[in-house]
Amino acid sequence: MPRRTLNAWSRPFHTFIALLLLVSISPIISLAALAKSQDPAHTTTTANVKVIPDGTEFTVVTTEEITSKTASEGDPLTFKVAEDVKIDGAIVIAKDSVVKGIVASAKKAGMMGRGGSLGIRVESTMTVDNQRLKLRSSKGKEGDDKTGTTVALVVLFGPLGFLKKGKNAKIAPGTQIKVYTDEEKRVELKG
User: Fold this and answer.
1) Rounded CA separation 136/148 (Å)
2) What does the angle CA 73 – CA 75 – CA 76 come to, to the nearest 5 degrees?
3) Which single residue of 13, 50, 58, 122 has CA 20 to 30 Å from 38?
4) DSSP at 178
5) 79 with 24, same domain?
């Protein structure tokens, strides 16, 4: 029986000791957290952080001619941001930032008046705090199809008319392309 009495007294005693330790340690933990939050290296105010929402629209421009005559599927492409992208008046993507993309499809112009085709895809750029930001957009271009002309040439000149070639698709330097952010991104501004 005395054992039972000892156990009955030891549980409340251990609970009391645990609460006493917790109460004595919590001010120390609070002070450490307060000191860390006041450290300038760990301070991030909401004024210095902007969120770029998914689907934010802006314009990029091509930096070189892209043509179905020389392009191959998978070739890397480079574009530039046309204007500063701002959130609440703060620049989150700078003008002239490099934008990366690829040739999604390319088909050269062919015989019998078949025109070329070209598809490009814009993939990513960098924010002002050097984070990669995924983008989505695509642009296609078709070369002039000369099949009507080819049929007329075959009627007039016989099989030699089949040698008429269509035009290759071209996207000129400076062509503007609308793009959209493909993710939400928190950008820390330099203050």
Assistant:
1) 36
2) 140
3) 50
4) E
5) no
